[in-house]
Design a protein that fits this description.
Blueprint lengths: L8 H20 L4 H48 L5
Helix pairs in contact: 1-2
């Protein structure tokens, strides 16, 4: 099971508030045309949260690759350093 360590408190708050507003809209309104409208409104912040999560994963991947490049350059420089006597 994947752990969602990048899902912060504010994202969870947005999900809970949006879902509760969606549920209230289902109770208070007609269940035909308005359901589609409320579903679209519900999906917008969910999509934004998913994009932010994916962006964070991509950032971590890029940082790991940059660290690997940096370490490779450090070891190469140490190997090419002339011996000091």
């Amino acid at each position: 099971m994947r752990h969602y360590k990048n899902l912060d408190v504010w994202s969870l708050i947005v999900i809970v508030v949006t879902f509760s507003l969606f549920a209230l809209a289902l109770i208070e309104k007609d269940l035909t045309h308005d359901v589609l409208l409320e579903s679209g409104v519900f999906l917008v912040p969910v999509k934004l949260i998913m994009l932010a999560h994916r962006n964070n994963d991509t950032r971590e991947s890029i940082e790991a690759k940059l660290d690997a490049i940096y370490n490779a350059l450090l070891t190469r420089d140490e190997c090419n350093r002339p011996d000091e006597e």
